[in-house]
Design goal:
Blueprint: E1 4-10, E2 13-21, E3 26-28, E4 31-32, H1 33-37, H2 41-53, E5 60-67, H3 71-89, H4 94-97
Parallel strand pairs: 3-5
Antiparallel strand pairs: 1-2, 2-5, 3-4
Helix pairs in contact: 2-3
Length: about 130
C-alpha cells in the first residue's frame, strides 16, 4: 500500500501525518515517541489509542511533523491525524474510530481577550470606595 497523508488539528497545534504499511515505527518530529513525550505515559497512550483500537500497532509505520500549541495539544493533533490516516488506509476502521470520537476535530480553542476585561470574561475587581 502507498503512503497515506492526513492532517490532525487540536487548539493551535497542527500535525502532518504520513502512514504506510510497515513494522510499527512511530517517528514524531524526527524523534521516537519516548524521546518526544518523555515520561508522560497517559499522553503517550492517547497518541497510540487509534492504533490500539484498530490493532495496527505492529502493522503500520507512522511519521508525523507537528508544530504549534503545547505538548498535550500536539499529542491530540497527532492522534487525530493518525485516526484520519487509518480511515483512509482502510475504510473498515471507520466503524471502530467514529464511535470513540477520534475522527472528530475538537473545535474548542481559547476565547480572545475583550476590551475592558482582564481576560476573556473576567472583569476587573469592583471597588465601592
Amino acid at each position: 500500500m502507498a503512503k497515506v497523508y492526513a492532517t490532525g488539528k487540536r487548539k493551535t497545534a497542527i500535525a502532518k501525518v504520513w502512514l504506510s504499511s510497515g513494522k510499527g515505527k512511530l517517528i514524531i518530529n524526527q524523534m521516537t515517541l519516548d524521546e518526544w513525550l518523555g515520561g508522560h505515559e497517559a499522553i503517550k497512550k492517547k497518541v497510540l489509542q487509534p492504533l490500539v483500537l484498530t490493532k495496527q500497532e505492529k502493522a503500520v509505520d507512522i511519521r508525523a511533523d507537528v508544530f504549534g500549541g503545547g505538548y498535550s495539544a500536539q499529542a491530540e493533533a497527532v492522534r487525530h491525524g493518525i485516526s484520519k490516516a487509518l480511515n483512509i488506509y482502510d475504510k473498515t476502521f471507520r466503524a471502530i474510530l467514529k464511535p470513540k470520537g477520534l475522527l472528530t476535530r475538537d473545535a474548542r480553542v481559547v476565547e480572545r481577550k475583550k476590551y475592558g476585561k482582564r481576560k476573556a470574561r473576567r472583569s476587573p475587581q469592583f471597588s465601592k470606595r
